[in-house]
Write a structure and sequence with these properties.
alpha/beta, 37% helix, globular, eight-stranded mixed sheet, 16 helices, 13% strand, 509 residues
């Protein structure tokens, strides 16, 4: 250990500079730090301090090295992780493919010959075998692979070493449903999908109308969006809001809907939404906050791309007004391109606030919203199938409450098996969360420390403090669109368009 200290200390300043610019930890430094822990038995926190590595990252690398060396069987080896990632990717693609009933069973599946799942579940069978081989319990594997909805682990097919053969429920995910691209002159409606309009914010609403008109769209306000009108904390009763929303979804003249504000109402009308109208004529619905719940449910039920973006009054007419002119122009161009262009946007504009909390790269569908909505919806009949999170890049943000609440919500996602399925994580700028501090052994934790504490040994890239959520102007985060994440380089790229060409008709996957 003494022989390594001079080298580690000489690299400390250089590595801190690298971390300040958020690039990946050098492989050589990573390997030597792991080797020091394993060869000397020195505490992880002590070894991590000198080169400036986060202790939880180093702890995860050490555990992975032990697994690769065959010294522990409670986690997969690197080779098995890579194989499982590919199998889950294939499994997701198979679930999105149209259902067919093969005459033969080329996969060696345990399902009866001709069963509609025989061919499509072969990738999941291989993934289950890999997890069982690594020493995971049957119940743990069942939770990770989402197999318990159809019965207990005792009902697994005999191919997994169980006593009985019985069917297991699998979820077929809908194909991705992209709205038609907007063109100049299209009608955009601002609606009260959750909270009411306070008369003090009418000027902000007028500014939001001007922003949308500046993009070339016609703008109309929905009937329930009247200053001073409210029912408790909502703009109206849930059934009234659902009736107005369904009317907008069925109206062929309306080409996009922007929520005026968030709130606490969407849970009240999830069971009143006309999902068939969405499938027949998908339209962009722009908003975040409470409306992120709507995005999640519509994506899971219909495949509709969710436009997690700024609200009208709070965002387009509020945060945008306070932003520098260059930033406003950048956002306006970004939103206009997102709604009108059938081409992938590519890298989102990066700012100095973005932080690498755990380096690495990932690629997968983007899914997320307010973290309390992601967690709580899983306790309803509108819970997202765990397959929605296979290989996904999870984005989330939170406003208000305590740091302990955020930790608890992340633990719920862990227990639900969601954190075992995702390939990466993007965290928005926290807003008014009490109990966040500067970190350290004696201080309140930072948000990064909370996230890494819950993730534990899960070696997935994490990018933090990205501009979406309640803290300011929002970068658009289109739910369901494939993205590329490089946390070390602080980049997030939209690899697919959010809309389909204007000339195409019908739903497009």
């Amino acid at each position: 250990m003494e022989s390594l200290k001079p080298w580690l200390r000489s690299r400390r300043k250089e590595n801190h500079e690298l971390c300040r610019h958020h690039v990946n930890t050098p492989i050589e430094l990573r390997e030597r730090a792991v080797r020091e822990v394993r060869s000397t038995g020195c505490p992880v926190a002590h070894v991590a301090r000198d080169p400036g590595i986060h202790k939880e990252s180093l702890r995860g690398w050490v555990h992975q090295a032990e697994a690769d060396a065959g010294e522990r069987d409670d986690r997969l080896t690197t080779a098995e992780r890579d194989e499982l990632k590919e199998l889950r990717k294939e499994n997701t693609e198979l679930r999105r493919a149209p259902v067919s009933a093969p005459a033969t069973d080329p996969s060696g599946s345990p399902w009866p010959r001709g069963h509609r799942f025989a061919d499509r579940t072969r990738a999941q069978h291989a993934a289950i075998h890999a997890l069982l081989k690594a020493g995971h319990s049957r119940r743990s594997v069942a939770t990770q692979e989402g197999l318990l909805r159809g019965g207990s682990v005792n009902e697994w097919p005999v191919v997994y070493g169980c006593r009985q053969t019985a069917s297991v429920t699998h979820t077929t995910l809908p194909q991705l449903l992209r709205p038609r691209a907007l063109i100049p002159g299209d009608l955009v409606v601002i609606a009260a999908l959750s909270g009411p309009l306070d008369a003090a914010y009418e000027p902000d609403l007028k500014l939001a109308v001007a922003v949308l008109e500046g993009m070339g769209f016609r703008v109309r306000l929905a009937p329930l969006l009247v200053a001073g009108r409210h029912r408790w904390w909502s703009a109206a009763r849930p059934d009234e809001i659902a009736k107005e929303l369904n009317g907008l979804l069925r109206d062929p003249e309306v080409r996009a809907i922007v929520a005026h504000d968030g709130g606490h109402t969407v849970y009240g009308y999830l069971d009143l939404i006309d999902f068939d109208a969405i499938r027949a004529d998908p339209k962009p619905i722009l908003a975040y906050s409470d409306i992120s719940l709507l995005h999640l449910v519509l994506y899971a039920r219909t495949g509709l791309v969710g436009f997690h973006a700024d609200l009208a009054t709070r965002g387009l007419g509020g945060y945008w007004k306070a932003a520098p002119a260059a930033r406003r122009a950048e956002l306006e161009k970004l939103y206009s391109t997102l709604l009108t262009s059938p081409e992938a946007i590519g890298p989102l504009p990066t700012t100095p606030s973005w932080e690498c909390w755990r380096p690495g790269q990932a690629e997968g569908p983007l899914i997320g919203g307010v973290i309390n909505r992601i967690a709580l919806v899983q306790a309803t009949p509108f819970a997202l199938p765990l397959e929605c999170f296979d290989g996904a890049v999870l984005f989330w943000e939170e406003t208000g409450g305590l740091a302990a609440h955020v930790w608890s919500l992340l633990q719920i996602l862990r227990h639900a098996g969601i954190l075992d399925r995702i390939s990466g994580m993007v965290v928005g700028i926290p807003d008014a969360i009490h109990g966040l501090g500067e970190g350290g052994p004696d201080g309140d934790p930072t948000l990064a420390e909370i996230v890494l504490d819950v993730l534990g040994d899960r070696d997935i890239p994490v990018l933090g403090n990205v501009e979406f959520g309640h803290a300011g102007p929002n970068l658009p985060m289109p739910t369901g669109i494939r993205v590329g994440l490089d946390a070390g380089q602080r980049t997030l790229s939209l690899l697919e368009p959010a809309v389909r060409p204007h000339t195409m008709t019908g739903p497009v996957g």
